[in-house]
C-alpha cells in the first residue's frame, strides 16, 4: 500500500515527539505535515507505523515478563501509563491528520462531502426502517399470542352480559362472601 503513495502512507509527516504545540495553523497542526512528499527519507516512520508500534508497546508492557516478575507495582504502573500515554498522543495526531484531510476535501470538493452525508443518512434511514419492521413483527406476534391465550381462557358462558357494570359483577361473583361484623 505504501508503494502506491510514495514512501509512506502519510507523506511529509513529522516524526513523533517533535510536534510543536501552537504553530501557525493552531495547536499541533504544523507538526503533522512538515514538508513536501519528496523530502522524506526511506527509513522515516508514518503516523500509522507509530500508532501500530505504540499499540504493540502497550500490549507488550502488559504481558512482559519484566512486569510479571517485578515486585515494584509503582514502577509497573508508571511504565504502563507511559505506554498508554504515548499511544493516546499518536492516536490524537492520527485523528488530527484525518480531520485536516477531511477539511481539505470539504473545501476543495464540497459536493463530495454532501454526497457522503446523503449516503450516510440513507444508510441510517434504511437501518432504522429495518429496526421498525423487526419491532412491528414482534408486536404482531405477541398480539397474536395474547389474543390466542385470551380466547382459550374465555368460554362462551364466561362472557359478561352487556352493560357498564358487567365486569364488576363478574369479578364480585368470584369473591368469597365477606364476614359479618358482630356488634
UniProtKB/TrEMBL annotation:
Task: Write out the annotated subcellular location.
Answer: Nucleus
Q: Which InterPro entries match?
A: Mediator_Med28
Q: Where is this region: Disordered?
A: 1-44, 153-183
Name-wise, this protein is Mediator of RNA polymerase II transcription subunit 28
Chief location of this protein within or outside the cell: nucleus
* Segments forming a coiled coil: 111-138
Q: Say if the entry is tagged with keyword Membrane.
A: no
Q: What keywords would UniProt list here?
A: Activator, Coiled coil, Nucleus, Transcription, Transcription regulation
What's the encoding gene here?
MED28
Q: Where is the composition biased (Gly residues)?
A: 20-29
Specify the superkingdom.
Eukaryota
Q: Among its keywords, does the record have Coiled coil?
A: yes
Q: Which family does it belong to?
A: Belongs to the Mediator complex subunit 28 family.
Sorted alphabetically, the Gene Ontology cellular component annotations on this record are: mediator complex
Biased composition regions of type Low complexity, renumbered to the chain: 1-12
Amino acid at each position: 500500500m505504501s508503494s502506491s503513495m510514495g514512501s509512506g502512507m502519510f507523506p511529509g509527516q513529522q516524526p513523533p515527539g517533535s510536534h510543536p504545540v501552537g504553530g501557525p495553523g493552531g495547536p499541533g497542526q504544523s507538526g503533522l505535515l512538515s514538508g513536501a512528499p519528496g523530502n522524506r527519507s526511506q527509513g522515516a516512520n508514518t503516523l500509522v507505523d507509530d500508532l501500530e508500534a505504540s499499540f504493540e508497546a502497550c500490549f507488550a508492557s502488559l504481558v512482559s515478563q519484566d512486569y510479571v516478575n517485578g515486585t515494584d507495582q509503582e514502577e509497573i504502573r508508571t511504565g504502563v501509563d507511559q505506554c498508554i500515554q504515548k499511544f493516546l498522543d499518536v492516536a490524537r495526531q492520527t485523528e488530527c491528520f484525518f480531520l485536516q484531510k477531511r477539511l481539505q476535501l470539504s473545501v476543495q470538493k464540497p459536493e463530495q462531502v454532501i454526497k457522503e452525508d446523503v449516503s450516510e443518512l440513507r444508510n441510517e434511514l434504511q437501518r432504522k426502517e429495518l429496526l421498525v419492521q423487526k419491532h412491528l413483527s414482534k408486536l404482531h406476534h405477541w398480539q397474536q399470542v395474547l389474543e390466542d391465550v385470551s380466547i382459550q381462557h374465555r368460554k362462551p358462558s364466561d362472557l359478561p352480559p352487556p352493560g357498564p357494570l358487567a365486569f364488576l359483577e363478574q369479578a364480585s361473583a368470584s369473591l368469597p362472601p365477606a364476614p359479618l361484623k358482630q356488634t
